[in-house]
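<backbone_tokenisation>
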Amino acid sequence: MTYQKPWERGVLRVSDNHRYLRNGDAPFFYLGDTAWLLCQVCDEAQARLYLQNRRDKGFTVIQSVLIHRLEGMPASSLAEVEKDAADPAYWAFVDKVVRMAEDLGLYMALLPAWGSVMQQGRLNEENIDRYITFLAQRYADAPNIIWLLGGDIRGDRCHDLYCREGRLLKQLNPDRLIGYHPFGRTSSSLWFHEEAWLDFNMFQSGHRRYDQVTLGAWDDNRLDAETYFGEDNWRYVDRDLAREPHKPTVDGEPSYEQILQGLHDLSQPYWREWDVRRYAYWSVFQGAMGHTYGDNSIQQFFHTPTVPGSFGVRYVWQDALHHVGSEQMGILRELMESVDYQSGRPATELLLSPQGEKYHRISVFAGESFLFAYDYLGEAFTLSLAPYAGKQLTAHWFNPVSGRESFLADLTGQSSVTVKPVARFTPDNDWVLVIRARA
């Protein structure tokens, strides 16, 4: 994989079909990692270690917060997350992190402040213009900035302040894309879709199983206000892309690797790399502009095992850097970039066998010269090949764990195909059927 800095191909913009992102005329795949407390917890050497690791794995965007307050963080980092916005030493460090990311060809998707900071009134009508002007001017020349508003907060909380923030950022940094990181199981489209400052939507499909509809915890969303999709994060993509005017969308926070299912109960199992892959393929094959990965240890940069962390965290972040789910995100990016994915579309109508529910779903994504089908459980399914009549067709099984392809068959002249993946001798048995077409 080459690491040419994407902005060298042109300013990051929304594609002409309003579904994806491009640098000039070159497709840009948004592959994000959640590094919320990077600037609050890490020193310079640690930040470099983290960013180098993520660049080498194919990530393209680092999502991080500039001012953060989170209850339950390790005591050793509480003083750090309370840094005042006027602290020159802190901002000098942020400058270094932004430059490190720039040198590595990484975008920084920066949240000016976490949602709780806004909700608690630390940012308000009296100081928000000064703070946003300070940020826009300080990073005016950095080519690798995306602005994210919000931060795990509903858009109907502080709505007018967020609109004010977005309008001012767009006025001062007109070439920078702006999104909004929302509350769990909601999307920015619910509150801001028609705002001119919002360039793309972001949803948070969250960390709960299908059966964990409501746990009575602080992060329950109001079921009477929004549709609850459970783990079906592809449904958020459908809903966002159906809105007008059309804007790209991305899952900005699906279930993190090695985080408790449901977040709060230590007796619950942890989400694993198999689950992480499912969220990624489901949303991207439904037309999302990319995907965001997260690891429980890294999102909080957990570093002191003797001090309890958040959400049942078990690993120090330096060890979590090597969790295999993060390796497998770059594999998805490479698969998408091997074809003209920005001209593709979700193509469930090509599935001739009955569409399964929940984990039995077969996700189909197709273009003129390719057809991808993601099978989470390794079950049999049948696809129509009618759109590729008269073309030479080859089929491979693509392993989302290794990124390797295994030749399956020449399908030239066939009108349909029925397949069933072989078992990998582990509980995880997800595969991608890859069909390529040549005239």
